[in-house]
Specification:
This protein is an alpha+beta fold. 40% of the residues lie in helices and 13% in strands. Helix 1 packs parallel to helix 4 and helix 5 crosses helix 7.
Length: 211
C-alpha cells in the first residue's frame, strides 16, 4: 500500500463485519480497496468483497491521531458485536442469548472459511483465524459446548504462546482437556498434549492446520 486509505475508504474498513470481514460500499469504493490490497472480491456469486489480512490489520490498528471521529463509533460497534470467551474473564451474559451469539459467530466463521478457501472447504482455518489465534480457538471450544473458566473456576483457558501460530489450552480436568483436543482437531487444528516441566501441568498446544 503506497498511501493511506481515504476517509470514506477507512469508514468502510472500520464497518466491516468483525468475524467475516465482509464489506459494504459502492462498486468503485470496493474496487479501490481491492487495488490497494486491502480487500478481495470473491470469485463465486454473489461476489461479495472481504477484507484481506492486511485490511484486517489496518482495521484493528489503533490510530487515534488519524482516524476520523465519525469512524470511531463504527469501529466500536463492530468490535462490540461478539467476543469469544478465552477463559478467566468475569462472568458475562449466559443462557439462550449467549448460545445464539456463539452459534451465529461460529456459522459466520464457517462461511468465511468457505468463501475464502479456493476449494470452498470449511475443514481448515482461514486467514482470520491465523491472525486471531486465541479468539479462534476459544470460539471453536465455546461453540462446541465447552465451558470457559471463570476468574478462579474450572473450565478451559486459551492463552497465546511465544511460538508462531500456536496457542496453549489449559483445563484442570484431564477428561475435559482431552475433549478440548478432540474439538479443536475436528475444527481443523493440529493438537498435541504436553506437560510443563516445572509445574507438571498438562496443557494442549494447538495450531491451525494448513492442509
Amino acid at each position: 500500500m503506497t498511501r493511506p486509505p481515504t476517509a470514506a475508504q477507512r469508514r468502510i474498513i472500520d464497518a466491516a463485519d468483525p468475524v467475516t470481514g465482509r464489506l459494504k460500499g459502492t462498486g468503485a469504493q470496493l474496487a479501490a480497496l481491492v487495488e490497494r490490497g486491502l480487500a478481495f472480491r470473491h470469485p463465486r456469486p454473489p461476489h461479495d468483497h472481504f477484507l484481506t489480512p492486511a485490511g484486517h490489520r489496518l482495521r484493528e490498528a489503533a490510530e487515534p491521531a488519524t482516524a476520523e471521529p465519525a469512524a470511531q463509533p463504527a469501529r466500536a460497534a463492530a468490535d462490540a458485536v461478539f467476543a469469544a470467551r478465552v477463559g478467566g474473564e468475569e462472568a458475562g451474559p449466559s443462557g439462550p442469548s449467549r448460545l445464539r451469539e456463539v452459534r451465529s459467530a461460529w456459522q459466520g466463521l464457517m462461511e468465511l472459511r468457505r468463501m475464502t478457501a479456493r476449494d470452498g472447504a470449511t475443514d481448515r482455518p482461514c486467514d482470520w483465524e491465523r491472525t486471531h489465534l486465541v479468539q479462534a480457538a476459544a470460539l471453536a471450544l465455546e461453540a462446541a459446548g465447552h465451558r470457559p473458566a471463570g476468574p478462579e473456576g474450572q473450565g478451559y483457558r486459551v492463552r497465546a504462546t511465544p511460538q508462531p501460530e500456536a496457542v496453549a489450552v489449559y483445563e484442570p480436568d484431564g477428561a475435559a482437556l482431552r475433549g478440548c483436543a478432540a474439538t479443536l482437531e475436528r475444527a481443523g487444528w493440529q493438537v498435541g498434549e504436553y506437560t510443563e516441566p516445572r509445574t507438571r501441568v498438562r496443557y494442549l498446544l494447538a495450531s491451525p492446520r494448513r492442509a
